[in-house]
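Subject: design request, 121 residues
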């Protein structure tokens, strides 16, 4: 079955940028819509954004719109989350998930283990 692995998370200062990667393996990434979610300690999982199979369509949560950008390179089986102007409230464990572009996490069938992003003030 499809496997997803995230990387790129680290500690960064507020106002800084990070680029997270989601590598899709065992199946062609072009077969899957991909979403990004995040979960902070003590909080529910939150939709960040998603991208269609071809990359022609994206959608974002209001909280990240204008600061985060999702793109993909199906030749490299990789989906990227570019995060700019980071804020302390962006601190969370970030997951990519395959199967939908919906904001509801139940619509996704496959999940990566996550990568930690910490933003200091």
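Subject: RE: design request

Done. Sequence follows.
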């Amino acid at each position: 079955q499809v496997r997803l692995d995230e990387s790129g998370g680290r500690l960064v200062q507020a106002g800084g940028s990070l680029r997270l990667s989601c590598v899709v393996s065992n199946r062609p990434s072009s077969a899957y819509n991909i979403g990004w979610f995040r979960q902070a300690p003590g909080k529910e999982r939150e939709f960040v954004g998603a991208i269609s199979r071809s990359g022609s369509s994206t959608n974002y949560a209001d909280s990240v719109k204008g600061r985060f950008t999702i793109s993909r390179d199906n030749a490299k089986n990789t989906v990227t989350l570019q995060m700019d102007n980071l804020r302390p409230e962006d601190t969370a464990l970030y997951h990519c998930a395959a199967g939908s572009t919906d904001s509801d996490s139940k619509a996704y069938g496959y999940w990566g283990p996550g990568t930690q992003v910490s933003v200091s003030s």
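The CA atoms of residues 49 and 59 lie 5 Å apart.
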